[in-house]
Amino acid sequence: MVARIRSAVVVQTMSSFVFLIGVTTLHTQGSATEGAAAPTTQTGQAAATAPPGRVDVGAAIYRKVGCFQCHVNEAQGGANGPKLGPDPVPFTRFTQYVRRPTGDMPPYSEKVLSAQDMADIYAFVRARPRPPAVSAIPLLAQ
Ligand code: HEC
């Protein structure tokens, strides 16, 4: 009984610790980009082709049409679908796949998700927080 309580406390302490590292890392990343010459969150090829989208609207659509059921709340992937963000495939491929998937994923036609809906979902997926590097988590980096 004591051992069980003790291990519960250890697990809880560990998860708070990992959470804190995540918050600290995000904070550091945020302030590192604040003074940058080109303050943009868009990078690489995805930025070149992605239309403007609204992160909060995308989040709502992502939940409403059920993407979260397989790709999980933060698009991090799970047992039923792969990770989508924060570095998704280029927008054109992203949309093509959602319209005409070739595997286990159900298709979403333009009637269900408009082009603007796709842009909003894409913005949401790209804005997901980046996990801390494994090397930044002492418990995992040994
Ligand atoms: C029923 C589960 C399920 C739902 C719901 C679902 N997906 Fe998927 N998705 C998958 C699976 C599984 C794959 C991997 C390929 C396959 O089997 O189709 C995938 C693949 C993808 C890919 C391709 C990723 C790549 O690397 O090429 C994209 C993009 C995607 N999903 C976006 C979405 C979006 C956006 C939604 C909501 C509109 C959604 N999915 C809803 C299961 C799902």
Features:
Cytochrome Bc1 Complex, Chain D, domain 2, 6 helices, binds heme C, 2 domains, mainly alpha, 142 residues, globular
Describe this structure in words.
The protein has helices spanning about 1-35, 45-50, 55-65, 65-70, 90-100, 115-125. By secondary structure, it is mainly alpha-helical. The chain has 2 domains: about 1-35; about 45-125, Cytochrome Bc1 Complex, Chain D, domain 2, CATH 1.10.760. The radius of gyration is 18 Å and the shape is globular. The two termini are about 30 Å apart. About 20% of the residues are buried. It binds heme C. Heme C binds near residues 80, 84, 98, 106 and 121.
Number of helices: 6
CATH class of the largest domain: Mainly Alpha
Supply the CATH architecture of the largest domain: Orthogonal Bundle
Give the cofactors and ligands. Answer: heme C
Characterize the largest beta sheet: strand count, sense, and whether it forms a barrel.
Answer: none
**Global outline:** globular
| Number of DSSP strand runs | 0
Order of helices and strands: HHHHHH
- Tell me the CATH superfamily of the largest domain: Cytochrome c-like domain
Low-pLDDT runs of 5+ residues are 7-42
Strand content: under 5%
CATH topology of the largest domain: Cytochrome Bc1 Complex, Chain D, domain 2
The CA-CA distance between the termini, in Å, is 30 Å
Helix content, binned percent: 40-55%
| Overall structural domain count | 2
Rg calc: 18 Å
Mean pLDDT: 78
Provide the structure class.
mainly alpha
Provide a quick synopsis of the model:
The protein is mainly α. 53% of the residues lie in helices and 0% in strands.
